[in-house]
Here is the input.
Amino acid sequence: MHRLLEGVSLVAFDLDGTLIDSVPDLAVAVDASLVELGLPVAGEARVRDWVGNGSLVLMERALRHAVLARSGEADPATDLRGGAVNPSLGATDAIPGIGPPLRSVPGASPDIDSALLARAHDAFLAHYAHDPGSRTRLYPGVRECLDALREKAVPLALVTNKPYAFIAPILTGFGLEHHFALCLGGDSLPQKKPDPAPLRHVAAHFGVAPEACLMVGDSRHDIAAGRAAGFRTLAVPYGYNHGEPVRDSGPDAVVESLAELV
Here is the structure.
């Protein structure tokens, strides 16, 4: 048993990039949505660098790339890493057959038109709901870890920024639907990671002190949420962290495989 589990009464896991590699299915849905809007596709490699902040932000990044690609402009490096994008890089002309140029609106990053983003997001949700798991795979060591923790009667929670509706189909597809006593999606509460509110909710739900909880994730958002909530933090280096080493986020420990946890 890993030293971080000593005195731990609850373990919370991220989903995408920690337990599952969902990018192949996400990329299919993203590209299908872009095609539906008459825009260039993104491809799996770009989507892999964009995931982690929820489906709305994913489609915002995909739209920005698609409009820039359509106009012949190169991708800004930060756009591929999920970070801030120079506001001056938006399209200036209306998109034929779609609508007005990308521009700053409340609730969206600079230059994204709210109506276009809503259409793209709705299209993504529909395409992803049609097939959220056929290309998705568990990472090595995940099943062994979850089975072992379940056998030890350690309560497990799932805290993801993925919309809640997609959690059950994916877990059921892997036979893991009974491993988690509580699941929170990115739309389950008003806040999502890196805000600590979901983790605080989990600790309160089980009546466990934060210092007796462990957050396991693959990104800086997971580590930041865990630390702010008072949880211990464990990171895996193989997931989605916008091209940055997750060790740089300062987790309490890093394991190459979740099998090392148990």
